[in-house]
Amino acid sequence: MNTNKKVLIICFIGLIILLLTSVYYMFLPAYAYIDNPIWLDHAKTYDGLSEIEGEKHNSTIIKALSLCGVQNPTDEMGWCSSFLNLVFKECGLKGTFDARGKSWLFYGRHVSPRKGAIGIFKTEGFYHATILMSGKPKKMNSGFMYACFGGNQGNMAIESYYYVSDLVDTRYPSVNEVLNKK
Fold it and tell me: Which CATH number is 48's domain given?
């Protein structure tokens, strides 16, 4: 085999390796190996954010609902998804920009439960989106539960626990959510 053919074969193999590597990284979540996801840390800065009883409404909750296109928002509406969208936007990430918790079922890509994953739970017929604080559930008196941080958890942005059996899916930002910000 002459030298030109050898060079062509080596170049072709190198091109194949480069292509396969690119495809592999295209499908990895952008933050797959972050120990402390920025959106979880940022969400915790809102710890204690709560609805205001009566005629007044919390301006941060109204801002989050408005971000998702909710007309005439009040802080008595469901705002778990809007809260996550606000947090993700402030972190420079694309969210769903939808006020429904169910919208997160189509976000990023599916991952096994892990710290920072968006947990979508279904309880009493409603979807609730929140951030898992760990990928490992805790054994509680009433069963195994995930510790989560999110909005509209007892009308507040706080840490709450949700049953493993109510978990519908866990999602994580992919390259698309990082590069294609809205």
Answer: 3.90.1720
